[in-house]
Structures are given as structure tokens and as C-alpha cells.
Amino acid sequence: MWNQSDQETKRSSPLRPRTRNELVGEFSMKRLTSRPSGHWCWTFGLAFAFLGFSACRKSTPVDEVSIGESGVALQAREVPAIELAWPQWRGPDMDGRAGDATPPTTWDQSTNIAWQADIPGRGHSSPIVIGDQVVLGTADDAKQQQMLVSYDLGSGQEKWRRVIHEGNFPSAREVHHKATNANGTPASDGRLIVTAFLNQERIFVTAVDLNGEVVWQTDVGAFASKFGYAPSPVLYQSFVILAADSFGGGYLVALDLETGEIAWRRSRGDASSYSSPMIASVGGMDQLLISGGDRVASYDPATGEPRWESSAIAEATCGTIVTSGDRIFASGGYPDKQTACFSATGEELWSDRTALYEPSMVTNGTSLFGVTDNGVAMCWSNEDGRVQWKERLGSNFSGSPVLAGGNVYVSDLSGNHYVFSASGDDYQLISKNRLGSDCYASPAVLADSLLLRIGFGEGGSRKERLVKITQRP
């Protein structure tokens, strides 16, 4: 269980974000030399990458900030004026569950396709849905541009495109070959859209309005990149919270959604990890939960103060925690492998040596579902961790599953899209659909539709498209 260690030096820090006027000139910055893209997590057969790494470790000490020091108070969030069907990574509750949605279970290039839209550049950012628009992050390596792009939900027509950064990308050796420079998924409260990018060796959080105009941008801290930056922001009342775990000095940080001011920043040690935090009410209190750094940890999302830690999982993880009732589920990673269940206070209730490294899991309340990176679909009992079934699907997986209409939807890296029953009895394949060449991102789910970011083609001819899948007459 938790044993807090204070390894970082608390220092004063400039908290004020840059305003719209101060940012006007920053979106036509000089271009630098382009470089090959890569992916935010890696296949850890390359364990030798750790050898000799300590000789070139870059220290980026964390300036911790408390709520008392910042003076930024948490406020209740106003009810949005527009529908937020899928407003952030893994949906409204960041758990991959889509309520009563019943999207199609079969599709291909000529079946149940409402529209397809070209995506500039490359990214693993999943789409979000805000009212009548679909928004995602992407990066054009040739132009060295990191951007947000909005599409019309009904037609797929591009509504706007906002370049957030131009130039100053990480070097090729600082991003894994499978990674991209736009891995995190944006988040929206219905008024602003917030995204985070690694640029200039730092993490910048940027908010734009629903027309793509920049409202504020804040440099939240340095980031020593080992294989790139992956986490997505999560919204909590008037705060936007994100993680930046790196070998130089990792941290969690919360910003005021309206102004971009830093409310709190909490050091998390010096392990490079890639998981997004999530927030759930567990044990009668809101808990900010994250894995990585050889632990599962809980924080108070209002203040950043630690609640508990449990030694578990692995140094590096990518998946996002999921919860059900008062149970917390996590999986990963490298170099250790573990899937485990914890109580609301961090007690380990059961453990399995199976690891889902890149994909997250999803639960229907009684069973826990996931697909390993090398293509084995798994189902555990939430209660005791008993493996209820497992089935080899083949190929490799990076994207995370979603649960909709009593089915699990998940895509592999070879253009196959699986739908199987969310049943604890046995593996029941509903359909195996073929579209595109790969799918690194995770679906957004609407009442009767899916939105998928899919790669088409190979090598230099590969292009990405946003595809809306809807039941057609």
C-alpha cells in the first residue's frame, strides 16, 4: 500500500497562461525538418532499449503547485447547452461504455458506410463528438504541424482546421516508430475543446472554442521523451487534468478550464509511462486513478493530494483504468505483466499474470473484457478474477474496446473489426468486418453509429480516414 516519498523539489512556477492576443503570432511558427512518425506505445520485445539508457537520462525536475499556492478553486461545471454524446477519450465516463447505443454490427467498404473523410497527416487521437461536429487531433510530419480538425457529423465535410503548433517536433529517436505526434484524444465541456501536445520538449495544453479559435494555451511543464507522449486530458467540474509521466520527472496537473491557469501540479516520480488518468466515484468519493510507475494510484481530483497507492502492474503502462461499483481494474505492462482488481482503498482483491499493454479494458458490471496486444480476447469474472473464457483473434491490437448494445467492438492493426457478445458464458463472435489496413485509435459511439479512424494503404501511400458507420436501409 501507499508510502509517499517526496523526491522532487518544490519551486515557484509561472502559472499564467498565454491569452488569445499573445498567441496570434504563434500559429505561423517556423518549420523544422520533418521526420518519420511513430506510435505512442511499443511492442516491448525490444527490452534492450533500456540498456545504456540511464547514461543519457535527462532530468526535468517538477515544480509542485498546491491549490493554496495557485488560488484556483474548483467550481461546479455548468450543464452544457449542446449534447455531448462522446466528449472525451473512451466516452462520457472514460470507461468505453456507450449505454443504450445500438450501432451496426456489420460493415465493409460498401455496407453501412454513411461517409468517409480524409484526415491530414497521422495520429492515434480518437474522435470525440460535440453537438453536430466530430473533432480529433492529428499531426502532419512533413509540415511539422500539430492540429485539431473538425468534421460535420451529418455529412463528414471538414468544418475547420486549427494548427496548434508548427515546428519543434521531438526528434526521431524520442518517438517510437509506431507512434505519432498526435496520440492523445481531445476533451470538451460543450464550450471549449482542450488538447495536449508534446512540443519544444514540453507539454502544452491548448483550449479552442467550437469554431476552432484559440482561447488559451498553457505550458504545464517539461517532458523528457523516451517513446513519445500519449495521455488524453480528462475533465472534472471546472478543471482539466492530464498526466505527463517521464523518466526526467513525471507529474499530474490540473488547469482551470476557463482560463488555463494551473490549479495544482503533483510530482509522480521518474518512470516513463503512457496511461491517461480517469475519474470515478469509488467508495463514496471521487478518485483520480492512474497506473504506471510500478503502482496503481489514487488522488483527490480537486486538490491533487494522494489518497492511496498500491504496488502493482508495471513501470510502464498504456491502458486506462476502468471501474465497476467499488472495484478498480488495471492491466499492463512492461517489464512486469499483470491484470488486477483493487478495492476502493487500494487493496488488491485478485490478480492475473495476463497483460494488456496498449489496449484498455471494458466491463459490463459482472465481467471484465479485453484483448491483449497479440490478439487474445479475454474475459474475467469481476468478482474473483476467474478467467471465464479466452479466444485467439489473431493479428495485433492497439485500440481499446467499447461496449454498446450488449456487444464489444474492437479493431486490430490489420483492417479487421470484431464484434463479440459481452457474455461471461463463452466467446460468441457476432461479426468480423473488413475495412482499411489498420486501426490504432478507438471508436466513438453514438446512439446508432460508430466513428472510426482507419488507416488505408501501406508505407508511404498510407492515408487515414474518419469513417461514420450507420445502419443503412
TrEMBL record:
Domain of life of the native organism: Bacteria
Keyword Nucleotide-binding part of the UniProt annotation: no
InterPro entries linked to this entry: PQQ_b-propeller_rpt, PQQ_rpt_dom, Quinoprotein_ADH-like_sf, WD40/YVTN_repeat-like_dom_sf
Ranges of residues in domain Pyrrolo-quinoline quinone repeat: 148-390
UniProt keyword list: Kinase, Serine/threonine-protein kinase, Transferase
First-level EC class: transferase
EC number: 2.7.1.-
GO molecular function, one term: protein serine/threonine kinase activity
Keyword Translocase: no
PANTHER family named among the record's database cross-references: CELL SURFACE PROTEIN, OUTER MEMBRANE PROTEIN ASSEMBLY FACTOR BAMB
Protein's name according to its UniProt entry: Probable serine/threonine protein kinase
Record organism: Rhodopirellula baltica (strain DSM 10527 / NCIMB 13988 / SH1)
